Structure formats: C-alpha cells, structure tokens
Amino acid sequence: MPEPPVPVRHAAFAWWGATACWFLGSLFGRLLGGHATPALGTSGAGDRDALLAATLPAPVAVLAFVIAAGLWASLVYGVYSGVGWARVVLAIAGAVGVFDLVLQLFSVVASSAHGTGDLVRGLAFLLALGLSLAGFTMMFRTDAAPYFARRR
C-alpha cells in the first residue's frame, strides 16, 4: 500500500481521535453518572439518552460503544487506505455524527443537572466535534483528491 498523502493521514488521525473522544466521553459520562444515567433521571433535555441508559445495562452499553467505535475506526481505515467509497460513506455518516454531537452537546448544556459525568462527556464531545470538523476539511482538500481517484 502506498503511503497516503499528508492531508489524508492527518484526516484519518483526526477522525480516529474524534472516535476515541466520543468513545471515552460516552463511557465515562455513563460510568461517572451524567444526566442520562438512570440514577439521576432526566431533566427534559436528554430524553433519548436517558431512555437508552435506562434500557441498556452498563455492560451492554459499553459493548455497544465498543462496537460502534470499532466500526467507525474501520471506516476511517478505509479512507486511510484510499478506498473512494469509504470517503463518501464517512462524509455522509460523519455529517450525521457531527449533527448528533451538536445535539448531545446541547442536551448536556441544557440539562439542569450537571454532574461530573456531564462535564467529562461535554468536554470529550466538544473535542470530538473539533476533530471531526478537522477530519472533514482535510479529507476533502484538493491535494487529497488524486489519492481517492485511483481504482482500488
């Protein structure tokens, strides 16, 4: 496999960093008792997260986080390897993911109950948002396009 150009390498590392931030923010937000954990209930702002937290036991939620992060990291590896369809799929899934990160950040800020889990989750998701946006911009730079134009 030829070495990917610098923007593609940087984009992949940004996406992998965003994946790690999302995973750690979700995990520690859950384990440290954020507003979406069953013990604290909801405040009207993270109802979807609270529903998931109430219906999934902690080990199952952690397994779901691991599976989701692994699938996302595999998709990023496809981009790193120069697979053209992976860049398109990551762009679409990434746009949905960024939108979801913004909604989750809003729910953390809008929540009336702010615990340690909320702070950790909010900071990790904010970092994930920044890394995701950096990954987007680097992935679609003009000097990265020829790397994806080749048939693989």
Could you characterize what this model shows?
Helix content is 75%, strand content 0%. It has helices at 6-31, 47-55, 58-80, 84-110, 116-139, 145-149. The termini are close together. Helix 4 (84-110) packs antiparallel against helix 5 (116-139).
Topology readout:
Elements: H1 6-31, H2 47-55, H3 58-80, H4 84-110, H5 116-139, H6 145-149
Helix pairs in contact: 1-3, 1-5, 3-4, 4-5
Helical segment count: 6
* Overall helicity: over 70%
Shape field: elongated
Gyration radius over CA: 17 Å
Q: What is the terminal-to-terminal distance?
A: 10 Å
Summarize this structure briefly:
With about 150 residues, this protein is mainly alpha-helical. It is built from six helices and no strands.
Keywords:
6 helices; 152 residues; 75% helix; mainly alpha
